[in-house]
Here is the input.
Amino acid sequence: KSEQALQSLLAGTAAHLGRDFFRSLVEHLARALGVKYALVGEFLGSDFDRVSVLSVWADGKLGEPFEYDLADTPCAEVKKRTICSYPHSLQRLFPKDIMLQHMGVESYLGAALFHKQGQPLGVLVVLDDKPMADTEVDRSILTVFAARAGAELERLHAEAALRGSESKMRAVWESALDGIITMDQEGLIIGFNPSAERIFGHSREAVLHRSLAEVLIPPSRRGSHQLGLARYLKSGQGPALN
Here is the structure.
């Protein structure tokens, strides 16, 4: 049964990335472990005192994402450790967690998501409305997929940072007073910013994918330019030609 649960999880999540991965993960995790609820959440705030639920499986269907405060919840204990298990009496153990009462939850198994540098990223949790068997296999499955979920969340953060960096670079490119021109290894123009259009009198559309030497270099200098480009491509070294 444990092997079937693991195979089902692997098959159900292997082809997915990003938000689709989290949606697939909670569904297949809940089905594989036979529980009513599963959720994956990201810690928010400088003190990681709030959770943003990225995806939740509740009573046989995907639910709407939501946020909740970490204080007085079992997830606050997960943040301190790698994994937490409460096989029964969950509402009695956490009487201030109103959400548990609304959900009718009796048992809990949660694992922390960590950044590769060690700081906590979030939680992967399964809950049920009846006592839950606390087995090493279930703990192992949750730990494995918590690591996978942490890696996916970290990848999404990196993508967002890259998009932000690209947006800033685009703003610099568009607003720079200097003419900026880029070319590929064949010497063809692949970038021509607005200042370059103003300085050289060519529109970007007119010069893209044309030879930089033919468009901008005077005929008397084209031979030197081509030799310099060939030397640079071969050795990675070349003088600045002003």
